[in-house]
Amino acid sequence: VKLIESINLNNIRGDITGGITAAIVALPFALAMGLASGAGAEAGLYGAIITGFFAAIFGGTPAQVSGPTGPMTIVMSLIVTKYLALYPDTGLALAFFTVFLAGIFQICFGLLKLGKYINLMPHAVISGFMTGIGVIIIVLQLPQILGFYEIKGSTLNIFSELGNVGQLFSNFGAISLAIMTLIIIYL
């Protein structure tokens, strides 16, 4: 209701431009996060659309950009991997049901205004969590960087598969592309 009341037709051109800009920025990221989660690019796209819809309704501010994030992608990839390993036929449905329940909990937490208690969480815990997520994201990208597209699974599975040093440097094209990309990014 507040969102509808806050609409000002004098700013409609800027609102449309801002919406298009946010969509252009969010689309590739959503597709990448969907792929990284193991659920596919289509799931990332739907996740961005549905997240944006619910964030506009239940969010704290009407002008926010929301979508899939790195930490949630890692959590989702672990859920998908575990359920698919345990239940090959229904694992994907169980994983999405788990995510649906998590979304219901988040909406309830938001309605109860429980977000204000995040200030009680020590900074070291949040920093450690985010560092761990960063390490997991890097490890999950190692098979693609090294050209081993058939390696799937958890971080421990990736390390065990990458243990074969003889194969490790067999795909020079993928490794050189990864090195050049990292050089361009960090220069």
Can you give a write-up of this model?
With 187 residues, this protein is mainly alpha-helical. It has 2 domains: 1-119, no CATH class; 121-187, no CATH class. The protein is built from 9 helices and no strands. It has helices spanning 2-5, 12-37, 41-58, 70-86, 91-111, 123-146, 155-161, 165-168, 172-186. Helix 2 (12-37) packs across helix 3 (41-58), helix 2 runs parallel beside helix 4 and helix 4 (70-86) runs antiparallel to helix 5. The longest helix is centred in the N-terminal third of the chain and has 26 residues, at 12-37. It is globular. It starts with a helix and ends with a helix.
In a nutshell, what does this entry contain?
By secondary structure, the chain is mainly alpha-helical.
Describe the biggest sheet? Answer: none
Mean pLDDT: 78
Gyration radius, to the nearest Å?
20 Å
End-to-end separation: 48 Å
The counted number of beta strands is 0
Q: Which regions contain 5 or more consecutive residues with pLDDT less than 50? A: none
What's the number of domains? 2
Shape: globular
What's the helix-strand series? HHHHHHHHH
Strand fraction equals under 5%
**If helices are DSSP runs of H or I spanning 4 or more residues, what is the number of helices?**
9
Helix content estimate: over 70%
**Class by alpha and beta content:** mainly alpha
Keywords: Membrane, Transmembrane, Transmembrane helix
GO biological process, one term: transmembrane transport
Organism: marine metagenome
Subcellular location: Membrane
